[in-house]
Specification:
The complex is a heterodimer of chains A (119) and B (106). With 119 residues, chain A is mainly β. Chain A has strands at 3-7, 11-12, 18-25, 33-39, 46-52, 57-59, 67-72, 77-82, 91-99, 105-109, 113-117. Classes of the chains: A mainly beta (119), B mainly beta (106). The A-B interface holds A 44-47, 60-62, 94, 96, 99, 102-107, 109-112 and B 1, 31-32, 34, 36, 42-46, 49-50, 53, 55, 87, 89, 91, 94-100.
């Protein structure tokens, strides 16, 4: 069973860049799609984007100008970078594995990490 | 963006009840509709994918149906561990989620 674990700062200042890394264990990052999803406190889920192990990406158009997702297959990790953050970016950030063979859905999630944007 | 509207937003039910949660899309999305269960402080868990396919390990009291723009999640014989928030998600285009349905104990 694949396990995912998010890591990174829990507090980011406004206008700075949010950086998170997801470490994948129990399986290879190769051959799969990997996503980031976020959930503001008390609100619904928002898909941020995904990366294929080859490096191909697909981002939510609403965030595309500020988002970069990268992958490091040698470390079995992928990362999220969100620039120019504001308080509206405060959320629990989840990394996840996508299945895109029989439809498209998320079958494995990290535990989530709360990132607060505040000075 | 495709908008997903869940109803009801909250629901009270008793152990043993049968409940149905509805998700409506702003355009046809068949069959790219998934259902997730989320408990407080935890990540979502996949229940149903492709509108009606039960994820491995998920109890058979959960079922999904629907097509086009209208989909339902049904839980037969509610168990104490089923009280949670349920989210639908469309993956026909840029993925979007419903606002969630909170299922509470009556």
């Amino acid at each position: 069973q694949v396990l995912l674990q998010e890591s990174g700062p829990g507090l980011v200042k406004p206008s700075e860049t949010l950086s998170l890394t997801c470490s994948v264990s129990g399986g290879s990052i190769s051959g799969n799609y990997w996503s980031w999803i976020r959930q503001p406190p008390g609100k619904g889920l928002e898909w941020i984007g995904y990366i294929y192990y080859s490096g191909a990406t697909n981002y939510n158009p609403s965030l595309k100008s500020r988002v970069t997702i990268s992958v490091d297959t040698s470390k079995n990790q992928f990362s999220l970078y969100l620039t120019s953050v504001t308080a509206a970016d405060t959320a629990v950030y989840y990394c996840a594995r996508d299945i895109q063979t029989s439809g498209w859905y998320i079958d494995s999630w990290g535990q989530g990490t709360l990132v607060t944007v505040s000075s | 963006d495709i908008q997903m509207t869940q109803s009801p937003s909250s629901l009270s039910a008793s152990v043993g009840d049968r409940v149905t949660i509805t998700c409506r899309a702003s355009q046809s999305i068949s069959p790219y509709l998934n259902w997730y269960q989320q408990k407080p402080g935890k990540a979502p868990k996949l229940l149903i994918y492709g509108a009606s396919n039960l994820q491995s390990g998920v109890p058979s009291r959960f079922s999904g149906s629907g097509s086009g723009t209208d989909f339902t999640l049904t839980i037969n014989s509610l168990q104490p561990e089923d009280f949670a928030t349920y989210h639908c998600q469309q993956t026909y285009s840029t993925p979007t989620f419903g606002q969630g349905t909170k299922l509470e104990i009556k």
